[in-house]
Amino acid sequence: MRDQFMQSFNAKTVFRGGSDLTGTASHYGATYDSRIHFDPWLLGGAASGNVSDLRELANTALHEAAHVLLFEHPNGETNGIYTDEPFNLLPPGAGVCIK
Q1: How confident is the model at residue 13 (pLDDT cuts 50, 70, 90)?
Q2: Mind listing the pLDDT tens digit for each residue in 45-96?
Q3: Higher confidence at residue 24 or residue 32?
Q4: Which end of the chain is less enclosed by CB atoms within 10 A, N or C?
């Protein structure tokens, strides 16, 4: 997933904006037509050094890269956690590491 994100980034298919749902904690970014978009409020928080937003930015980058690789999460989410691989490797929440 990291390699795919870096390929997308280097190909200039990673964008600020395009999916901004300001104030919606459950949404940090999205993938449209293999283009990764990050919500500006998440990028702003991460740029200011907010540790929670930095962690969410890393998780979101990997999550959206998995969508570029055509992974889906048909089982949806339970309590904010996706159970489908590889998304289950990206747990949300304070004090949690990316597996």
Answers
A1: very high
A2: 999 999 988 988 998 899 999 999 999 888 877 777 788 888 888 776 555 5
A3: 32
A4: C
To the nearest 10 degrees (0 to 180), the angle between helices 51-68 and 2-10 is 90
The amino acid that residue 70 corresponds to is: L
Q: In whole angstroms, how far apart are CA 89 and each of 2, 22, 59?
A: 12, 26, 9
How many CB atoms neighbour CB 39 within 10 A? Answer: 24
Q: Which of 58, 59, 15 is nearest to 34 (CA)?
A: 15
Name the strand (E) or helix (H) holding 81.
strand 81-82
Residue 40 to residue 21: CA distance in whole angstroms: 9
Phi-psi region at 39: left, alpha or beta (left = phi > 0; alpha = psi -120 to 50): beta
Tell me the whole-structure pTM to 2 decimals.
0.80
